[in-house]
Every structure is written in C-alpha cells, then in structure tokens.
C-alpha cells in the first residue's frame, strides 16, 4: 500500500458495532452496522447491516468483521502538544511556568534545532506514540528553526499519516538570548517561509492526502513584541492560516503581561487580530465567564489541558462555563507541561478537575448560607460546573474535530466524512471472553461478546482502557497502525508498537 497516496486504494467494508458522540453529552451505540469507504477514504455508506441495501453490498463485496466484544470509535484529537518537549516528557514539573520554560523547554527546543538527527528520532517516536494512543489529529508547537519544523511536518505525514497542524514558533523576545529570532521583521519573514515550504512539501499529493498543514504560532505574549503579533495577525488574515498560542495560562505569566503591556492577554491578542475562527488558544484558565463569552464571539477555540493546568496554573479552567458560552473546546495533552501523551488520560483528568470545581462550589454555597457566614460573602447560585465521561469523550472526538475545523463530519460516522477511527477490543473472543488489559467482566451474562455492547461496557473502557485495547487506527480510511494479535482476519499491516512503514 503506497504511503504517499499516489496509488488508488480499494474501497473498504467493515461490519460491526460503532460508537460516536454527535453532540455534547450524547453517545450513540450503533449495533451491527455496515460502513463502506470510497477510494479516497471517505465514508460513502453507513447503515444497519440488516437493511436490504446493506445485504446487496455485502453480496458483492467482502465485509471485514469486527468481532463480538469490539467496537469502532472515532480517533482522538489533541489540540495542544509541544513536539520537541517530547524529548523530556515526564520530568521537570516542579517549577513555576516561567522558570520551567527557561530551565527545560527552551533548552530542549534549542537542542533539537541544532541536531536534525535527534529531531528526526524524537518526532518519529512521537508519531508512533500518538497512533498507539488513538490520536488521529494533533496541533503541534515546534521550534523556531524552519528546517526542524519541516522535519516534523514530513515525519507526521510519512511516518504517522496523522492530521497534523505544525507550528514554527514565532518569538522575537526571550529570556534565553540564544533562543530568539533577531527581530519582528525576521520572525515574520521566517513564518512566511515556513508556511510556503510546508505547503509546497505536500503539493504533489492528492488533496485528500495532504494531512499536514502549517499553523502560525506566536508562542505567547511574553515572547512576542506587539509588532510581531500584529504582523502575524495580518499574515493569518491575508492567507487564511490557522493560529495557535497560549492565553491566560498561569499567574506569573498573566502578571508579566499586565506589567509589560498594561493590558491582559485577551486584549493583546484581540487587538492583534489573532482571535479568529481559525485560532486555537491553549489553557485560558484565568479568563472569567464574561471573557469566555468574548472568546466565543470571535470564534476562537480553546484547548483544555487539565493535567498541565494542575502543575502550572493557579486556576482550573472554567470548562462548563466555556461550553455554556458556546466556545468550541477540545482537549490537549500539552507535552511536556503534561506528562502523558494519551488523550484518554486528558479525558479522565478533565472530569476529575470539573468534579473538584463542583465540590468547591457546593461547599462554598453551603458556607455562605450558614448562620455564621459573613453576610457580605458572595454566593454562587449557578448550575453545576462538573462534566461527565460522555461529555469528555465528545471533547476528545467530535468537539476536538470542530475546534480544529477538520473536514466536515470528522469525529462522527457520517456519510461524506473521512474515516478516522480506532478499533477497540474489550475481550479476547477465542479465550472465552477473557478481558483485555485492566478491564474485568465478572458476570458472564453481561460480558462483552456475550451480551450486546452497552454504555456500561463503553464507560468501563473509558475509565480503565489503554493501548492494549486498541487493535488498530485508520486515518482517511487507511490503516496506519495495526497490531497482529488474536483472530481478526484483517491484517493489512504489521504493527508492534510502531506504525508500519
């Protein structure tokens, strides 16, 4: 199978159970459905396998069976990840944000910019890990050197076959003198150059295989002059480019911007025309409910990174308020500010943080109504602020796809949408329904494969599942990661921890 998309691929037909979240809080389990892709990897048929039309299709084309105890679900979207920081993930999380950047982040990024072979190794391993954990679309911060970011773009396209938005950092100010661009003009010229070269790199591919795109990336306000920010805003508008940055992330960063600029992050970005429907801003933990409505009005999306917020922000993100305000929200791992590249962990952490917020709200409300309470104490009569696992799954799939403005229908199984999906197995059918990984099913009457797939089974996977349950990954209808295990007859590509090449 050609990895460059030059060869026409065959249509595929898959029969089994499918799970998706078309709307916030809603999960649909579609039992025994038939899904067909066309030669471009888009879904051109999806319906119950019992329909006469489905039977006619299966009479003329072999259907790949998804065994009992398994299901197909859309791939995850990671809206915020620092690719060079994968070099040191899981270390150095003991410092405040601004100190951490100087001690760890800038050094690692500078190291990759000076060693192209190291960059290649780091980025290949990152691509493999993303696929292993079911991520099909990712927005990446890179480094300041154009050539290093072109390595990242090439690796994501050739090795990972991921939908990747690759950002060359723009920063004309830095606390590390050796890691900064010479001027706003030089930074803007480099941004132009990277975008041109990144687009040109994949121009020969069919349009549906051009999975990697450039994204303008002012690191954050402290590393960018106002001239650079306004220049990037003009460039984004002129060329219709995506934008990513960090906004209102941590107490020390917020105070730094107020002192240096005399206004808040939100105002700086808005005045630079960098809050657009093509923008993803990470974190936003220090935005009030009113400011979240302002963000919604611009069409800007937010990458919620609950794990890194726990380390580097003194505030949890107001997730429920953002959703209620109409902000497009997805999840991010924020490697290496977060230590896990697995979006499943981000989902669980998002729920946990929201539950803690709800607990704090409930306790505060109880105290404010007690006889001993200060009569001037502000009370909170708003509705609950927690989210549940179904909503978190939406954020990781359909919500993330909308935030990234992926092709129509991404994150769902809809005719016309690209087939980006994960094959999940809960049990080993040949071993009398033995559970896989951390999962356990003690009651035979409700065991996957014996009983029909239901919400409780999906929830248990959501809570306890890991890469051992992930049989394979499809991007744009193509198998990009596959484990040769157990019995499925569908073995197009061998995969043992690394994507097949």
TrEMBL record:
Cited Gene3D superfamilies: Metal-dependent hydrolases (3.20.20.140), Urease, subunit C, domain 1 (2.30.40.10)
GO molecular function: guanine deaminase activity; zinc ion binding
The protein's required cofactors: Zn(2+)
Chain ranges of the Amidohydrolase-related domain: 71-480
Record key words, sorted: Hydrolase, Metal-binding, Zinc
Listed GO biological process terms: guanine metabolic process
Highest taxon above the source species: Eukaryota
Positions of region (Disordered): 362-382
Matches recorded under InterPro entries: Amidohydro-rel (IPR006680), Metal-dep_hydrolase_composite (IPR011059), Metal_Hydrolase (IPR032466), Metallo-dep_hydrolases (IPR051607)
Assigned GO CC terms: cytosol
Coiled-coil regions listed: none
The protein's name: Metallo-dependent hydrolase
């Amino acid at each position: 199978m050609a990895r460059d998309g030059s060869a026409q691929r065959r249509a595929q037909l898959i029969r089994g159970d499918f799970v998706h979240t078309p709307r916030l809080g809603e999960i649909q389990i579609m039992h025994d459905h038939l899904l067909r892709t066309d030669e471009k990897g888009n879904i051109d048929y999806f319906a119950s396998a019992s329909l006469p039309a489905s039977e006619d299709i299966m009479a003329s084309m072999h259907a790949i069976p998804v065994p009992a105890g398994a299901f197909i679900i859309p791939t995850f979207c990671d809206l915020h990840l620092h690719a060079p920081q994968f070099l040191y993930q899981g270390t150095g999380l003991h410092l405040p944000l601004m100190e951490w950047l100087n001690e760890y982040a800038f050094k690692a990024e500078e190291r990759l910019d000076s060693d192209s072979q190291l960059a290649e190794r780091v980025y290949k391993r990152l691509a493999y890990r993303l696929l292993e954990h079911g991520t099909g679309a990712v927005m990446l911060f890179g480094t300041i050197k154009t050539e290093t970011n072109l390595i990242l773009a090439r690796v994501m396209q050739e090795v990972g076959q991921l939908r990747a938005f690759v950002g060359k950092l723009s920063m004309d100010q830095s606390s590390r003198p050796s890691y900064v661009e010479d001027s706003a003009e030089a930074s803007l010229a480099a941004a132009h150059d990277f975008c041109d070269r990144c687009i040109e790199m994949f121009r020969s591919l069919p349009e549906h295989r051009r999975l990697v795109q450039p994204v303008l990336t002012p690191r954050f306000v402290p590393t960018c002059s106002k001239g650079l920010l306004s220049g990037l805003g003009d460039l984004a508008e002129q060329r219709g480019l995506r934008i990513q940055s960090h906004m209102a992330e941590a107490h020390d960063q917020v105070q730094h911007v107020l002192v240096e600029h005399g206004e808040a992050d939100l105002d700086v970005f808005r005045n630079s025309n960098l809050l657009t429907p093509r923008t993803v801003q990470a974190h936003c933990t220090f935005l009030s409910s009113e400011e979240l409505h302002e963000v919604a009005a611009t069409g800007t999306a937010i990458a919620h990174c609950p794990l890194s917020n726990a380390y580097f922000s003194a505030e949890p993100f107001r997730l429920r308020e953002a959703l209620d305000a109409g902000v497009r929200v997805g999840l991010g791992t924020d490697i290496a500010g977060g230590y896990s590249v697995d979006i499943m962990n981000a989902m669980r952490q998002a729920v946990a943080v929201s539950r803690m917020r709800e607990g704090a709200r409930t306790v505060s409300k109880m105290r404010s109504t007690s006889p001993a309470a200060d009569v001037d104490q502000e009370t909170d009569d708003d509705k609950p602020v927690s989210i549940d696992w179904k909503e978190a799954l939406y954020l990781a799939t359909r919500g993330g796809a909308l935030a990234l403005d992926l092709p129509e229908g991404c994150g769902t199984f809809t005719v016309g949408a690209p087939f980006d999906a994960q094959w999940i197995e809960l049990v080993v059918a040949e071993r009398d329904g033995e559970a896989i990984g951390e999962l356990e099913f003690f009651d035979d009457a409700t065991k996957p494969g014996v009983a029909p797939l239901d919400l409780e089974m999906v929830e248990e996977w959501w809570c306890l599942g890991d890469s051992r349950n992930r049989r394979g990954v499809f991007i744009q209808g193509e198998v990009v990661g596959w484990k040769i295990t157990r019995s499925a007859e569908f073995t197009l590509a061998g995969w043992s921890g690394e994507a097949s090449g």
